[in-house]
């Protein structure tokens, strides 16, 4: 440190090849003032920034102007956690470890310094999944020194792989409590500081985001690094469907041979069904779920050879979606980031975080019992539900003026009606010993004992850097088949459940939310290639209430009931045996008398890092 007379003055001490305390060669090192801390030696190496308070001039017990030097304090921020560095105007630097009178003696009253800000992120101590904005202000008497640091750090940030530079943003102004625009205004400065260009579209009508995404040219879409939804799960579903519908050329879901739908070959697609042996379970023998072996069955969609290869490939590794929560439940955000926090989501977007997400393809073959067979494809990222779930979303539409509270009111009204529906469900069982344990648990002991022993040890919760999501299946195939690896298991067989159901649900992810802290299925994963099929058979009102109560408890056991069937499957079919059939797809109404569904493993990428432990 340089001295001028007897005063302690901050000087420049740059060492392009100096070695910091961790032994790694530094790129840059200087003595600066850190706002609200004091005089520090700032060091930049390949991993990030680190700084420590400058020690006394002579020894550990030396005194400068009557003030004993503060013991060395080391702190740092990794380059991966820095999202912006900017030169700011002149200003005062405050030294928190010195009395104000001494600070004035050292710096002079009203003396301003050249300064630059380092914007980064830190994790909340109480909630590790919540990310908090961090700002560090460094000062120096020379403008050249500050400019040198800003240039060096910005040059290094540009080399960070995966960070977006251009994003298309959709804002739903009436989402949730009508806070879509306010939410975007709160996080927009983060994108500006990170030098991320954004084209913002505030939707004015339902379906506008779908129309824009489905009609946007591939050339324009290639100019973006991703698409951001400021809204809820339903709004993201609209954007997702607009993106996938014209671009994803995928087979229809496989179906058992007795699943009645006749599709004419229109030159673009054709559904093929091979013979297969299928056995079923009925409500008269709900405790018996036989495992039936069968020949392989396939469903395929034959593309017209005249079709040109798409200009925008799907799946696409570099193109990602982001969600800034402003909805009623925001289950997808909670499952992918661990927090229902717009700041956390915005930071994970600008830092270029990435997780893969399974997407369910749902094909409606018939809308009503008497309607024609007309396949209609929809996609879901979190949940598809029938019965109770379909009734709640339908009832809630009458009370949109209530905001998010309409779901509580509608849920109560539907629960009191306690309606059940007759239906037939077939699902593809691929690894019965590992994936379908519910029937074994249900046959062991009484209901009370099952509730007292929730078998939480069996749960493998999806977290950041999840091994299950990152693991490659042993029977994985190349090409598009890699998205449906479990369909090619040698142990696959079709099984059926038929009877009266209060609800039928298919969860792509755990669907955690504030009312269900563990979600519908606590151990569901973001990208394992499985749907969690949850069948709730008709049961007494009190028993169903008990089941719903378990969903609201952290560590609860909503699946350990005799009237609940839980199946992990890559594909299933549904046929209503009644006249009414309304589904809830990611919070949107979808009327379907007969449908089939399959899951595509890791079809899309999200700007997220996964929940922290």
State the separation between the terminal residues, measured CA to CA.
Answer: 43 Å
Major pleated sheet = 16 strands, mixed
Helical amount = 10-25%
Low-confidence stretches: 1-23, 56-72, 263-310, 437-457
SS-based class: alpha+beta
Quickly count the helices. 15
- Tell how many strands the DSSP assignment holds: 27
Share of β-strand residues: 25-35%
- Outline type: elongated
| Rg, nearest Å | 29 Å
Arithmetic mean pLDDT: 81
Structure overview:
This protein is an alpha+beta fold and 613 residues long. It has 15 helices and 27 strands. It has a 16-stranded mixed sheet that branches. A seven-stranded antiparallel sheet has the order 8-5-4-3-11-10-9, with helices on one face. A hairpin with a 2-residue loop joins strand 4 (38-45) and strand 5 (48-53). The two termini are 43 Å apart.
Keywords, separated by commas or semicolons:
alpha+beta; 15 helices; 27 strands; elongated; disordered N terminus
How would you summarize what this structure contains?
The protein is α+β, with helices and mostly antiparallel strands. Helices cover 21% and strands 30% of the residues. A hairpin with a 3-residue loop joins strand 3 (26-34) and strand 4.
